[in-house]
Amino acid sequence: MKIALLSATALAGSLLSGPAMALDTSSLKVCGDGANWPPFHYKKGENIEGYDIDVLNAIFQNSGVDVSVDLPPWKRCVFE
Length: 80
Prior knowledge:
It holds the Pfam family SBP_bac_3. InterPro entries: Solute-binding_3/MltF_N (IPR001638). This is Solute-binding protein family 3/N-terminal domain-containing protein. Residues 1-22 form the signal peptide. There is one protein chain. The chain has helices at residues 2-21, 51-60, 74-79; strands at 27-31, 42-44, 47-49, 66-70. By secondary structure, it is α+β, with helices and mostly antiparallel strands. The strands form two sheets. A two-stranded parallel ribbon has the order 1-4. A two-stranded antiparallel ribbon has the order 2-3. The chain is flat. The termini are far apart.
């Protein structure tokens, strides 16, 4: 019984993890609501700045992941 349960768990894990490993991890698109929430995130001219952006850049700076941030209205952010 334990062997069958272990085998089923291993099979399910391998089947479910396949699509996750196929994801493109070279870029990350972050979407926030269009409202400015200084000091967390806000538009300054054409740039998006703030504490949240600084933390994201610090986390991914050595990983080779290109982080892009956009602040459209929340409804559009959820559906894109």
